[in-house]
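fwd from M.: "can u put these together and see what the complex looks like"

so here's what she sent:
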Amino acid sequence: MTTLPLDNSHHIREHLRERASATVKRRQFVSRLMIALCWVAIALAALPLGDVIINLFIHGWASVSSWAFYSQLPAQPTLFSPDAVGGVSNAIVGSGVILGYALLGALPIGIGIGVYNAESDSRFAIVLRLVVATMVGAPSILMGLFAFGLVVVQFGFGFCILAGAFAIGTMMLPVLAASTEIAVRNVPATLREAGLALGAKKSTTSLRIVLPAAITGIVSGAILAISRAIGETAPVLLVIGGSQAFTWKAGDFGQALPLMIYQDASSSYPAQRAQAWGIALFIVIVVFVLSLTARIWANSKQKERR
Amino acid sequence: MSENLLTVSSPTPVTYVEGRQRPSTSSRGPYEYVLLAAASLFALIAAYFVGTVIWRAVPAFREQGFGFFSNAMWNASFDPAVPSQFGSLSMIIGTLITSGIAILIAVIVGTGTALAISFLLPTRLRTVAATLIELLAAVPSVVYGIWGLVVLTPWFQYTVGPWLAGIPGFAWLFGTTAGGQCYLLAGLVLGAMILPSYVAIGREVINSVSKELIEASLSLGATQWQTLWKTVIPTARIGLFGAGTLALGRAIGETVAMSMVLGSALSTNYQLLKPGATLAGWIATQWGEAQGSSQVPALFALGVILMVVSLSMSLISNRLVARQRRAATL
Protein backbone atom coordinates (compact mmCIF):
# COMPACT_ATOMS: atom_id res chain seq x y z
CA MET A 1 0.00 0.00 0.00
CA THR A 2 1.43 3.27 -1.06
CA THR A 3 0.92 6.32 1.04
CA LEU A 4 -0.59 9.26 -0.72
CA PRO A 5 1.46 12.38 -0.28
CA LEU A 6 -0.89 14.26 2.03
CA ASP A 7 1.19 17.35 2.01
CA ASN A 8 2.42 18.22 -1.45
CA SER A 9 2.95 21.89 -0.71
CA HIS A 10 6.65 21.24 -0.79
CA HIS A 11 6.40 20.16 -4.42
CA ILE A 12 4.23 23.07 -5.36
CA ARG A 13 6.63 25.47 -3.76
CA GLU A 14 9.51 23.86 -5.57
CA HIS A 15 7.65 24.10 -8.85
CA LEU A 16 6.78 27.74 -8.29
CA ARG A 17 10.34 28.57 -7.41
CA GLU A 18 11.57 27.02 -10.62
CA ARG A 19 9.03 28.90 -12.66
CA ALA A 20 9.79 32.15 -10.89
CA SER A 21 13.48 31.84 -11.40
CA ALA A 22 12.85 31.10 -15.08
CA THR A 23 10.75 34.25 -15.34
CA VAL A 24 13.36 36.31 -13.57
CA LYS A 25 16.03 34.90 -15.83
CA ARG A 26 13.98 35.70 -18.91
CA ARG A 27 13.29 39.23 -17.70
CA GLN A 28 16.92 39.80 -16.94
CA PHE A 29 17.90 38.49 -20.33
CA VAL A 30 15.43 40.82 -22.07
CA SER A 31 16.64 43.70 -19.94
CA ARG A 32 20.29 43.05 -20.77
CA LEU A 33 19.45 42.70 -24.45
CA MET A 34 17.50 45.95 -24.61
CA ILE A 35 20.10 47.85 -22.59
CA ALA A 36 22.70 46.56 -25.02
CA LEU A 37 20.52 47.84 -27.86
CA CYS A 38 20.49 51.27 -26.21
CA TRP A 39 24.27 51.22 -26.39
CA VAL A 40 24.00 50.19 -30.03
CA ALA A 41 21.67 53.17 -30.56
CA ILE A 42 24.18 55.61 -29.10
CA ALA A 43 26.88 54.08 -31.31
CA LEU A 44 24.60 54.33 -34.36
CA ALA A 45 23.94 57.99 -33.53
CA ALA A 46 27.62 58.76 -33.05
CA LEU A 47 28.73 57.00 -36.24
CA PRO A 48 27.33 59.34 -38.94
CA LEU A 49 27.91 62.44 -36.83
CA GLY A 50 31.52 61.42 -36.23
CA ASP A 51 31.92 60.58 -39.91
CA VAL A 52 30.71 64.07 -40.89
CA ILE A 53 33.26 65.72 -38.59
CA ILE A 54 36.11 63.45 -39.74
CA ASN A 55 35.36 64.08 -43.41
CA LEU A 56 35.17 67.81 -42.81
CA PHE A 57 38.71 67.78 -41.49
CA ILE A 58 40.08 65.36 -44.10
CA HIS A 59 38.71 67.27 -47.10
CA GLY A 60 38.46 70.78 -45.75
CA TRP A 61 41.51 71.41 -43.61
CA ALA A 62 43.84 72.27 -46.50
CA SER A 63 41.53 75.09 -47.62
CA VAL A 64 40.81 76.46 -44.16
CA SER A 65 44.48 76.58 -43.24
CA SER A 66 45.56 78.46 -46.38
CA TRP A 67 45.61 82.24 -46.48
CA ALA A 68 44.33 82.43 -50.07
CA PHE A 69 41.03 80.96 -48.86
CA TYR A 70 40.34 84.17 -46.95
CA SER A 71 42.02 86.74 -49.16
CA GLN A 72 41.22 85.81 -52.78
CA LEU A 73 38.14 85.93 -54.95
CA PRO A 74 36.82 82.66 -56.36
CA ALA A 75 38.19 81.64 -59.74
CA GLN A 76 36.78 79.23 -62.29
CA PRO A 77 39.12 76.26 -62.72
CA THR A 78 39.77 75.08 -66.26
CA LEU A 79 41.13 71.88 -67.76
CA PHE A 80 44.57 73.48 -67.97
CA SER A 81 44.59 74.84 -64.43
CA PRO A 82 42.24 72.53 -62.53
CA ASP A 83 43.51 73.68 -59.14
CA ALA A 84 42.95 77.41 -59.65
CA VAL A 85 39.90 77.91 -57.44
CA GLY A 86 40.99 81.08 -55.68
CA GLY A 87 39.43 81.87 -52.33
CA VAL A 88 36.08 82.78 -50.88
CA SER A 89 36.69 86.32 -49.66
CA ASN A 90 33.54 87.65 -51.37
CA ALA A 91 31.37 84.99 -49.72
CA ILE A 92 32.84 85.68 -46.27
CA VAL A 93 32.09 89.38 -46.70
CA GLY A 94 28.68 88.59 -48.21
CA SER A 95 27.70 86.33 -45.34
CA GLY A 96 28.97 88.91 -42.86
CA VAL A 97 27.01 91.75 -44.46
CA ILE A 98 23.81 89.67 -44.69
CA LEU A 99 24.17 88.67 -41.06
CA GLY A 100 24.94 92.26 -40.04
CA TYR A 101 21.84 93.73 -41.68
CA ALA A 102 19.71 90.85 -40.45
CA LEU A 103 20.87 91.42 -36.86
CA LEU A 104 20.41 95.18 -37.17
CA GLY A 105 16.75 94.63 -37.93
CA ALA A 106 16.00 91.48 -35.97
CA LEU A 107 17.81 92.10 -32.65
CA PRO A 108 15.85 95.14 -31.42
CA ILE A 109 12.51 93.89 -32.74
CA GLY A 110 13.05 90.33 -31.54
CA ILE A 111 14.05 91.41 -28.04
CA GLY A 112 11.15 93.86 -28.00
CA ILE A 113 8.66 91.11 -28.85
CA GLY A 114 10.18 88.82 -26.24
CA VAL A 115 9.94 91.42 -23.46
CA TYR A 116 6.42 92.33 -24.51
CA ASN A 117 5.33 88.69 -24.49
CA ALA A 118 6.90 88.12 -21.09
CA GLU A 119 5.49 91.22 -19.38
CA SER A 120 2.07 91.54 -20.90
CA ASP A 121 -0.82 89.17 -20.46
CA SER A 122 -3.17 90.90 -22.86
CA ARG A 123 -5.05 88.84 -25.41
CA PHE A 124 -2.73 90.17 -28.11
CA ALA A 125 0.28 88.81 -26.23
CA ILE A 126 -1.33 85.39 -25.93
CA VAL A 127 -1.94 85.25 -29.68
CA LEU A 128 1.54 86.58 -30.37
CA ARG A 129 3.13 83.86 -28.23
CA LEU A 130 1.36 81.26 -30.31
CA VAL A 131 2.52 82.94 -33.53
CA VAL A 132 6.13 83.04 -32.28
CA ALA A 133 6.03 79.38 -31.25
CA THR A 134 4.64 78.41 -34.63
CA MET A 135 7.06 80.52 -36.66
CA VAL A 136 10.06 78.99 -34.86
CA GLY A 137 9.34 75.78 -36.73
CA ALA A 138 8.75 77.31 -40.16
CA PRO A 139 11.08 75.88 -42.81
CA SER A 140 13.71 78.41 -43.84
CA ILE A 141 12.92 78.12 -47.54
CA LEU A 142 9.55 79.74 -46.87
CA MET A 143 11.39 82.84 -45.65
CA GLY A 144 13.18 82.82 -48.99
CA LEU A 145 9.84 82.74 -50.82
CA PHE A 146 8.56 85.53 -48.55
CA ALA A 147 11.60 87.73 -49.19
CA PHE A 148 11.30 87.06 -52.92
CA GLY A 149 7.62 87.98 -53.00
CA LEU A 150 7.97 91.08 -50.84
CA VAL A 151 11.45 92.55 -51.31
CA VAL A 152 12.51 91.30 -54.74
CA VAL A 153 9.20 91.65 -56.60
CA GLN A 154 6.77 93.83 -54.66
CA PHE A 155 9.28 96.43 -53.46
CA GLY A 156 11.14 96.07 -56.74
CA PHE A 157 14.64 95.70 -55.29
CA GLY A 158 15.48 92.72 -57.49
CA PHE A 159 17.84 89.99 -56.38
CA CYS A 160 20.17 91.53 -53.81
CA ILE A 161 21.98 91.20 -50.50
CA LEU A 162 19.25 93.18 -48.75
CA ALA A 163 16.62 90.60 -49.72
CA GLY A 164 18.86 87.88 -48.26
CA ALA A 165 19.25 89.87 -45.06
CA PHE A 166 15.48 90.29 -44.90
CA ALA A 167 14.94 86.54 -45.27
CA ILE A 168 17.56 85.71 -42.62
CA GLY A 169 16.28 88.43 -40.30
CA THR A 170 12.69 87.18 -40.55
CA MET A 171 13.97 83.72 -39.72
CA MET A 172 15.79 85.00 -36.63
CA LEU A 173 12.87 87.03 -35.25
CA PRO A 174 10.86 84.22 -33.66
CA VAL A 175 14.02 82.56 -32.30
CA LEU A 176 15.11 85.80 -30.63
CA ALA A 177 11.60 86.52 -29.37
CA ALA A 178 11.20 83.06 -27.84
CA SER A 179 14.60 83.01 -26.11
CA THR A 180 14.19 86.56 -24.79
CA GLU A 181 10.75 85.74 -23.41
CA ILE A 182 12.13 82.73 -21.54
CA ALA A 183 15.10 84.70 -20.23
CA VAL A 184 12.84 87.49 -18.92
CA ARG A 185 10.42 85.02 -17.37
CA ASN A 186 13.28 83.27 -15.60
CA VAL A 187 14.17 86.43 -13.70
CA PRO A 188 12.83 85.87 -10.16
CA ALA A 189 9.57 87.71 -9.55
CA THR A 190 10.95 88.98 -6.23
CA LEU A 191 13.50 91.07 -8.12
CA ARG A 192 10.80 92.81 -10.13
CA GLU A 193 8.63 93.22 -7.04
CA ALA A 194 11.54 94.78 -5.16
CA GLY A 195 11.96 97.33 -7.93
CA LEU A 196 8.25 98.16 -7.98
CA ALA A 197 8.12 98.32 -4.17
CA LEU A 198 10.89 100.89 -4.18
CA GLY A 199 8.60 103.04 -6.26
CA ALA A 200 10.34 102.59 -9.59
CA LYS A 201 8.19 102.88 -12.66
CA LYS A 202 7.35 99.71 -14.55
CA SER A 203 9.58 100.74 -17.45
CA THR A 204 12.51 101.58 -15.15
CA THR A 205 12.15 98.26 -13.36
CA SER A 206 12.07 96.47 -16.68
CA LEU A 207 15.04 98.30 -18.22
CA ARG A 208 17.30 98.63 -15.17
CA ILE A 209 16.52 95.50 -13.18
CA VAL A 210 14.86 92.78 -15.23
CA LEU A 211 16.75 93.12 -18.53
CA PRO A 212 20.25 93.20 -16.94
CA ALA A 213 19.30 90.10 -14.96
CA ALA A 214 18.10 88.36 -18.11
CA ILE A 215 21.06 89.37 -20.26
CA THR A 216 22.78 85.95 -20.30
CA GLY A 217 19.66 84.28 -21.63
CA ILE A 218 19.12 86.98 -24.23
CA VAL A 219 22.71 86.82 -25.48
CA SER A 220 22.68 83.02 -25.59
CA GLY A 221 19.50 83.17 -27.64
CA ALA A 222 21.03 85.70 -29.99
CA ILE A 223 24.09 83.50 -30.48
CA LEU A 224 21.87 80.51 -31.15
CA ALA A 225 20.04 82.55 -33.77
CA ILE A 226 23.32 83.72 -35.34
CA SER A 227 24.77 80.23 -35.52
CA ARG A 228 21.61 79.02 -37.19
CA ALA A 229 21.66 81.93 -39.62
CA ILE A 230 25.28 81.50 -40.79
CA GLY A 231 24.61 78.11 -42.32
CA GLU A 232 21.17 78.83 -43.78
CA THR A 233 21.28 78.11 -47.49
CA ALA A 234 17.76 77.88 -48.82
CA PRO A 235 16.57 81.46 -48.16
CA VAL A 236 19.71 83.11 -49.55
CA LEU A 237 19.68 80.73 -52.51
CA LEU A 238 16.34 82.13 -53.61
CA VAL A 239 17.03 85.83 -53.31
CA ILE A 240 20.67 87.01 -53.35
CA GLY A 241 21.42 86.18 -56.95
CA GLY A 242 24.91 84.77 -56.48
CA SER A 243 27.90 86.64 -57.83
CA GLN A 244 31.63 86.12 -58.08
CA ALA A 245 32.46 89.78 -57.52
CA PHE A 246 33.47 91.41 -54.28
CA THR A 247 30.75 93.62 -52.84
CA TRP A 248 29.34 94.78 -49.57
CA LYS A 249 26.59 96.95 -50.99
CA ALA A 250 23.06 96.01 -49.97
CA GLY A 251 21.62 96.53 -53.44
CA ASP A 252 24.08 94.32 -55.34
CA PHE A 253 23.92 90.65 -56.23
CA GLY A 254 25.70 88.89 -53.41
CA GLN A 255 27.38 85.66 -52.44
CA ALA A 256 27.17 83.72 -49.18
CA LEU A 257 29.26 80.89 -47.73
CA PRO A 258 26.59 78.17 -47.58
CA LEU A 259 25.43 79.04 -51.09
CA MET A 260 28.98 78.42 -52.38
CA ILE A 261 29.01 75.00 -50.70
CA TYR A 262 25.76 74.18 -52.46
CA GLN A 263 27.10 75.26 -55.84
CA ASP A 264 30.60 73.79 -55.57
CA ALA A 265 29.78 70.44 -53.94
CA SER A 266 28.73 68.92 -57.26
CA SER A 267 31.61 70.44 -59.26
CA SER A 268 33.60 68.08 -61.47
CA TYR A 269 36.88 69.69 -60.33
CA PRO A 270 38.24 68.05 -57.17
CA ALA A 271 39.82 71.35 -56.08
CA GLN A 272 36.45 73.08 -56.19
CA ARG A 273 34.86 70.30 -54.14
CA ALA A 274 37.71 70.61 -51.65
CA GLN A 275 36.96 74.31 -51.41
CA ALA A 276 33.31 73.50 -50.65
CA TRP A 277 34.48 71.20 -47.86
CA GLY A 278 36.72 74.00 -46.62
CA ILE A 279 33.77 76.40 -46.38
CA ALA A 280 31.74 73.73 -44.58
CA LEU A 281 34.54 73.22 -42.05
CA PHE A 282 34.90 76.98 -41.63
CA ILE A 283 31.17 77.37 -40.87
CA VAL A 284 31.14 74.45 -38.45
CA ILE A 285 34.17 75.84 -36.58
CA VAL A 286 32.56 79.29 -36.34
CA VAL A 287 29.27 77.80 -35.11
CA PHE A 288 31.00 75.59 -32.52
CA VAL A 289 33.21 78.41 -31.23
CA LEU A 290 30.22 80.75 -30.97
CA SER A 291 28.01 78.32 -29.08
CA LEU A 292 30.80 77.12 -26.77
CA THR A 293 31.78 80.70 -25.92
CA ALA A 294 28.16 81.57 -25.20
CA ARG A 295 27.81 78.52 -22.98
CA ILE A 296 31.00 79.15 -21.01
CA TRP A 297 30.18 82.84 -20.62
CA ALA A 298 26.65 82.09 -19.43
CA ASN A 299 27.94 79.53 -16.93
CA SER A 300 30.54 81.89 -15.49
CA LYS A 301 27.96 84.66 -15.21
CA GLN A 302 25.62 82.36 -13.37
CA LYS A 303 28.33 81.35 -10.89
CA GLU A 304 29.21 84.99 -10.38
CA ARG A 305 25.66 85.74 -9.35
CA ARG A 306 25.51 82.99 -6.74
CA MET B 1 19.47 73.57 -29.43
CA SER B 2 15.83 74.36 -29.83
CA GLU B 3 14.63 72.88 -26.57
CA ASN B 4 14.78 76.27 -24.93
CA LEU B 5 12.32 77.59 -27.44
CA LEU B 6 9.52 75.30 -26.51
CA THR B 7 8.48 76.73 -23.19
CA VAL B 8 6.83 79.66 -24.89
CA SER B 9 3.29 78.42 -24.66
CA SER B 10 3.39 77.66 -20.95
CA PRO B 11 2.74 81.12 -19.62
CA THR B 12 3.22 81.91 -15.97
CA PRO B 13 1.35 85.06 -15.08
CA VAL B 14 3.42 88.01 -14.01
CA THR B 15 3.03 88.44 -10.28
CA TYR B 16 2.50 91.80 -8.68
CA VAL B 17 3.06 93.04 -5.18
CA GLU B 18 0.15 92.19 -2.97
CA GLY B 19 -2.28 95.00 -2.41
CA ARG B 20 -0.99 96.92 -5.37
CA GLN B 21 -3.29 97.45 -8.27
CA ARG B 22 -2.18 96.17 -11.62
CA PRO B 23 -1.08 99.18 -13.64
CA SER B 24 -3.98 100.04 -15.89
CA THR B 25 -3.50 100.20 -19.64
CA SER B 26 -4.00 103.95 -19.60
CA SER B 27 -0.74 104.49 -17.69
CA ARG B 28 1.41 103.37 -20.58
CA GLY B 29 4.67 105.23 -20.96
CA PRO B 30 6.84 105.51 -24.07
CA TYR B 31 8.61 102.28 -23.11
CA GLU B 32 5.39 100.27 -23.27
CA TYR B 33 4.60 101.82 -26.63
CA VAL B 34 8.00 100.83 -28.04
CA LEU B 35 7.40 97.24 -26.94
CA LEU B 36 3.89 97.29 -28.36
CA ALA B 37 5.27 98.65 -31.63
CA ALA B 38 7.80 95.81 -31.89
CA ALA B 39 5.09 93.28 -31.15
CA SER B 40 2.70 94.80 -33.69
CA LEU B 41 5.43 94.92 -36.31
CA PHE B 42 6.02 91.22 -35.80
CA ALA B 43 2.31 90.47 -36.10
CA LEU B 44 2.33 92.44 -39.34
CA ILE B 45 5.38 90.54 -40.65
CA ALA B 46 3.79 87.20 -39.77
CA ALA B 47 0.57 88.17 -41.53
CA TYR B 48 2.49 89.39 -44.57
CA PHE B 49 4.53 86.19 -44.57
CA VAL B 50 1.48 83.96 -44.78
CA GLY B 51 -0.28 86.38 -47.13
CA THR B 52 2.61 86.78 -49.57
CA VAL B 53 3.28 83.06 -49.95
CA ILE B 54 -0.41 82.28 -50.52
CA TRP B 55 -1.10 85.27 -52.76
CA ARG B 56 1.82 84.53 -55.09
CA ALA B 57 0.58 80.95 -55.42
CA VAL B 58 -2.98 81.84 -56.39
CA PRO B 59 -2.40 81.89 -60.20
CA ALA B 60 -1.03 78.35 -60.09
CA PHE B 61 -3.90 77.00 -58.00
CA ARG B 62 -6.42 78.73 -60.24
CA GLU B 63 -4.79 77.43 -63.41
CA GLN B 64 -4.24 73.85 -62.28
CA GLY B 65 -7.22 73.35 -60.00
CA PHE B 66 -7.30 70.13 -58.06
CA GLY B 67 -4.88 68.66 -60.60
CA PHE B 68 -2.12 70.38 -58.69
CA PHE B 69 -2.45 67.72 -56.01
CA SER B 70 -3.28 64.70 -58.14
CA ASN B 71 -0.96 65.24 -61.09
CA ALA B 72 2.66 64.07 -61.22
CA MET B 73 3.68 66.08 -64.29
CA TRP B 74 5.74 69.26 -64.23
CA ASN B 75 5.90 70.85 -67.67
CA ALA B 76 6.47 74.56 -68.03
CA SER B 77 5.13 75.56 -71.41
CA PHE B 78 6.52 78.58 -73.22
CA ASP B 79 3.95 78.36 -75.95
CA PRO B 80 0.84 80.38 -74.99
CA ALA B 81 -1.35 77.94 -76.93
CA VAL B 82 -0.23 74.97 -74.83
CA PRO B 83 -1.13 75.15 -71.14
CA SER B 84 1.57 74.40 -68.58
CA GLN B 85 1.10 71.34 -66.44
CA PHE B 86 2.12 71.50 -62.80
CA GLY B 87 1.37 68.71 -60.35
CA SER B 88 2.85 68.16 -56.93
CA LEU B 89 1.97 64.48 -56.46
CA SER B 90 5.46 63.07 -56.83
CA MET B 91 6.98 65.76 -54.59
CA ILE B 92 4.36 65.05 -51.93
CA ILE B 93 5.05 61.32 -52.07
CA GLY B 94 8.81 61.95 -52.19
CA THR B 95 8.56 64.12 -49.09
CA LEU B 96 6.50 61.45 -47.32
CA ILE B 97 9.02 58.70 -48.17
CA THR B 98 12.14 60.59 -47.15
CA SER B 99 10.74 62.09 -43.97
CA GLY B 100 9.08 58.78 -43.10
CA ILE B 101 12.42 56.96 -43.22
CA ALA B 102 14.06 59.82 -41.34
CA ILE B 103 11.53 59.97 -38.51
CA LEU B 104 11.66 56.19 -38.09
CA ILE B 105 15.43 56.35 -37.65
CA ALA B 106 15.32 59.42 -35.43
CA VAL B 107 12.69 58.01 -33.09
CA ILE B 108 14.15 54.51 -32.71
CA VAL B 109 17.84 55.42 -32.56
CA GLY B 110 17.15 58.76 -30.89
CA THR B 111 15.03 57.38 -28.05
CA GLY B 112 17.66 54.71 -27.38
CA THR B 113 20.38 57.36 -27.42
CA ALA B 114 18.44 59.67 -25.12
CA LEU B 115 17.84 56.81 -22.65
CA ALA B 116 21.48 55.79 -22.84
CA ILE B 117 22.70 59.34 -22.22
CA SER B 118 20.33 59.87 -19.30
CA PHE B 119 20.68 56.53 -17.53
CA LEU B 120 23.57 54.43 -18.81
CA LEU B 121 26.49 56.78 -19.37
CA PRO B 122 28.72 57.50 -16.38
CA THR B 123 27.47 60.68 -14.68
CA ARG B 124 30.49 62.68 -15.69
CA LEU B 125 30.04 61.91 -19.37
CA ARG B 126 26.35 62.85 -19.42
CA THR B 127 26.87 66.62 -19.59
CA VAL B 128 29.60 66.15 -22.18
CA ALA B 129 27.35 64.02 -24.36
CA ALA B 130 24.44 66.43 -23.96
CA THR B 131 26.64 69.39 -24.94
CA LEU B 132 28.01 67.49 -27.95
CA ILE B 133 24.49 66.61 -29.11
CA GLU B 134 23.41 70.22 -28.83
CA LEU B 135 26.47 71.38 -30.79
CA LEU B 136 25.75 68.84 -33.50
CA ALA B 137 22.16 70.04 -33.73
CA ALA B 138 23.62 73.37 -34.85
CA VAL B 139 25.53 71.90 -37.82
CA PRO B 140 23.92 73.46 -40.90
CA SER B 141 22.03 71.18 -43.25
CA VAL B 142 24.18 72.06 -46.25
CA VAL B 143 27.09 70.36 -44.45
CA TYR B 144 25.08 67.14 -44.24
CA GLY B 145 24.27 67.73 -47.89
CA ILE B 146 27.89 67.82 -49.05
CA TRP B 147 28.69 64.82 -46.84
CA GLY B 148 25.83 62.85 -48.36
CA LEU B 149 26.70 63.89 -51.89
CA VAL B 150 30.47 63.44 -51.85
CA VAL B 151 30.97 60.64 -49.32
CA LEU B 152 27.78 58.57 -49.28
CA THR B 153 26.57 58.75 -52.88
CA PRO B 154 29.51 56.78 -54.36
CA TRP B 155 29.28 54.29 -51.50
CA PHE B 156 25.60 53.79 -52.22
CA GLN B 157 26.11 53.55 -55.95
CA TYR B 158 28.84 50.91 -55.87
CA THR B 159 28.41 49.01 -52.57
CA VAL B 160 25.08 49.36 -50.80
CA GLY B 161 22.89 49.86 -53.85
CA PRO B 162 23.94 46.76 -55.84
CA TRP B 163 23.67 44.66 -52.70
CA LEU B 164 20.12 45.84 -51.92
CA ALA B 165 19.08 45.56 -55.56
CA GLY B 166 20.32 41.97 -55.57
CA ILE B 167 18.19 40.78 -52.65
CA PRO B 168 15.64 38.43 -54.21
CA GLY B 169 11.98 39.18 -53.50
CA PHE B 170 12.51 42.85 -52.66
CA ALA B 171 12.58 44.30 -56.16
CA TRP B 172 9.20 45.97 -55.50
CA LEU B 173 10.79 47.91 -52.64
CA PHE B 174 14.28 48.69 -53.87
CA GLY B 175 14.08 48.20 -57.63
CA THR B 176 16.64 46.25 -59.57
CA THR B 177 19.17 48.92 -60.48
CA ALA B 178 21.40 50.69 -58.03
CA GLY B 179 21.55 54.46 -57.99
CA GLY B 180 23.66 56.93 -56.07
CA GLN B 181 21.19 59.69 -55.29
CA CYS B 182 18.02 57.99 -54.12
CA TYR B 183 15.12 58.02 -51.67
CA LEU B 184 16.81 55.61 -49.26
CA LEU B 185 20.02 57.64 -49.05
CA ALA B 186 18.04 60.86 -48.68
CA GLY B 187 16.01 59.32 -45.87
CA LEU B 188 19.14 58.12 -44.08
CA VAL B 189 20.92 61.48 -44.37
CA LEU B 190 17.77 63.25 -43.21
CA GLY B 191 17.54 60.85 -40.27
CA ALA B 192 21.11 61.62 -39.22
CA MET B 193 20.33 65.32 -39.57
CA ILE B 194 17.25 65.46 -37.37
CA LEU B 195 18.62 62.99 -34.82
CA PRO B 196 20.54 65.53 -32.68
CA SER B 197 17.57 67.85 -32.25
CA TYR B 198 15.28 64.92 -31.39
CA VAL B 199 17.79 63.64 -28.83
CA ALA B 200 18.31 67.11 -27.35
CA ILE B 201 14.60 67.53 -26.59
CA GLY B 202 13.99 63.85 -25.85
CA ARG B 203 16.76 63.82 -23.27
CA GLU B 204 15.30 66.85 -21.55
CA VAL B 205 11.85 65.28 -21.52
CA ILE B 206 13.21 61.99 -20.16
CA ASN B 207 15.16 63.82 -17.47
CA SER B 208 11.95 65.44 -16.30
CA VAL B 209 10.57 62.05 -15.20
CA SER B 210 10.70 62.11 -11.42
CA LYS B 211 13.39 60.12 -9.62
CA GLU B 212 10.84 58.78 -7.11
CA LEU B 213 8.88 57.10 -9.88
CA ILE B 214 11.99 55.38 -11.21
CA GLU B 215 13.13 54.31 -7.77
CA ALA B 216 9.66 52.99 -6.95
CA SER B 217 9.71 50.88 -10.08
CA LEU B 218 13.18 49.52 -9.35
CA SER B 219 12.31 48.77 -5.72
CA LEU B 220 9.31 46.72 -6.85
CA GLY B 221 11.79 44.43 -8.52
CA ALA B 222 11.45 45.65 -12.10
CA THR B 223 14.55 45.21 -14.19
CA GLN B 224 16.39 48.21 -15.60
CA TRP B 225 14.71 47.81 -18.98
CA GLN B 226 11.25 47.26 -17.50
CA THR B 227 11.69 50.52 -15.61
CA LEU B 228 12.70 52.38 -18.76
CA TRP B 229 10.02 50.81 -20.97
CA LYS B 230 7.08 50.70 -18.57
CA THR B 231 7.75 53.72 -16.36
CA VAL B 232 10.03 56.26 -18.00
CA ILE B 233 8.78 56.12 -21.59
CA PRO B 234 5.03 56.11 -20.78
CA THR B 235 5.55 59.05 -18.43
CA ALA B 236 7.49 60.98 -21.04
CA ARG B 237 5.48 59.88 -24.06
CA ILE B 238 3.68 63.16 -24.74
CA GLY B 239 6.95 65.08 -24.71
CA LEU B 240 8.68 62.45 -26.84
CA PHE B 241 5.80 62.63 -29.30
CA GLY B 242 6.22 66.41 -29.36
CA ALA B 243 9.95 66.06 -30.01
CA GLY B 244 9.15 63.64 -32.81
CA THR B 245 6.64 66.02 -34.37
CA LEU B 246 9.18 68.81 -34.23
CA ALA B 247 11.81 66.60 -35.88
CA LEU B 248 9.28 65.56 -38.52
CA GLY B 249 8.53 69.21 -39.22
CA ARG B 250 12.23 69.85 -39.75
CA ALA B 251 12.51 66.82 -42.01
CA ILE B 252 9.61 67.94 -44.17
CA GLY B 253 11.00 71.45 -44.59
CA GLU B 254 14.59 70.42 -45.30
CA THR B 255 15.70 71.87 -48.59
CA VAL B 256 19.27 71.95 -49.82
CA ALA B 257 20.45 68.66 -48.34
CA MET B 258 17.52 66.96 -50.05
CA SER B 259 18.17 68.49 -53.43
CA MET B 260 21.81 67.35 -53.07
CA VAL B 261 21.28 63.70 -52.10
CA LEU B 262 17.92 62.96 -53.70
CA GLY B 263 18.72 64.44 -57.07
CA SER B 264 15.86 66.08 -58.90
CA ALA B 265 13.84 63.60 -60.84
CA LEU B 266 10.10 63.39 -61.25
CA SER B 267 8.69 59.97 -61.85
CA THR B 268 5.91 57.81 -60.58
CA ASN B 269 8.43 55.12 -59.71
CA TYR B 270 8.95 55.39 -55.97
CA GLN B 271 11.30 52.44 -55.43
CA LEU B 272 13.80 53.32 -52.75
CA LEU B 273 16.89 53.20 -54.97
CA LYS B 274 15.44 55.70 -57.45
CA PRO B 275 16.11 59.44 -57.44
CA GLY B 276 13.16 61.72 -56.76
CA ALA B 277 12.18 65.09 -55.40
CA THR B 278 10.73 66.63 -52.26
CA LEU B 279 8.52 69.73 -52.04
CA ALA B 280 11.24 71.98 -50.61
CA GLY B 281 14.04 70.44 -52.65
CA TRP B 282 12.13 70.94 -55.91
CA ILE B 283 11.66 74.65 -55.18
CA ALA B 284 15.42 75.02 -54.75
CA THR B 285 16.44 73.05 -57.84
CA GLN B 286 13.89 74.68 -60.18
CA TRP B 287 14.26 78.23 -58.85
CA GLY B 288 17.01 79.38 -61.20
CA GLU B 289 15.37 78.35 -64.45
CA ALA B 290 11.87 79.21 -63.24
CA GLN B 291 12.50 82.95 -63.19
CA GLY B 292 10.18 84.92 -65.40
CA SER B 293 7.97 81.97 -66.25
CA SER B 294 4.67 80.56 -65.02
CA GLN B 295 6.71 78.15 -62.89
CA VAL B 296 7.22 80.74 -60.15
CA PRO B 297 3.58 80.71 -58.92
CA ALA B 298 3.63 76.91 -59.11
CA LEU B 299 6.73 76.81 -56.89
CA PHE B 300 4.99 79.20 -54.48
CA ALA B 301 2.08 76.75 -54.47
CA LEU B 302 4.50 74.02 -53.33
CA GLY B 303 5.51 76.48 -50.62
CA VAL B 304 1.88 76.80 -49.54
CA ILE B 305 1.59 73.02 -49.06
CA LEU B 306 4.86 73.08 -47.13
CA MET B 307 3.68 75.99 -45.00
CA VAL B 308 0.36 74.41 -44.06
CA VAL B 309 1.99 71.11 -43.10
CA SER B 310 5.00 72.48 -41.22
CA LEU B 311 3.18 75.22 -39.34
CA SER B 312 0.57 72.77 -38.08
CA MET B 313 3.33 70.34 -37.06
CA SER B 314 5.07 73.13 -35.21
CA LEU B 315 1.85 74.10 -33.44
CA ILE B 316 1.13 70.51 -32.38
CA SER B 317 4.65 69.84 -31.12
CA ASN B 318 4.70 73.05 -29.08
CA ARG B 319 1.43 72.17 -27.40
CA LEU B 320 2.62 68.66 -26.62
CA VAL B 321 6.01 69.57 -25.17
CA ALA B 322 4.43 72.35 -23.13
CA ARG B 323 1.78 69.98 -21.80
CA GLN B 324 4.47 67.47 -20.83
CA ARG B 325 6.39 70.18 -19.04
CA ARG B 326 3.33 71.27 -17.08
CA ALA B 327 2.59 67.65 -16.16
CA ALA B 328 6.19 67.22 -15.00
CA THR B 329 6.18 70.29 -12.78
CA LEU B 330 2.86 69.51 -11.10
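replying to her w this: Chain B has one domain: 89-329.
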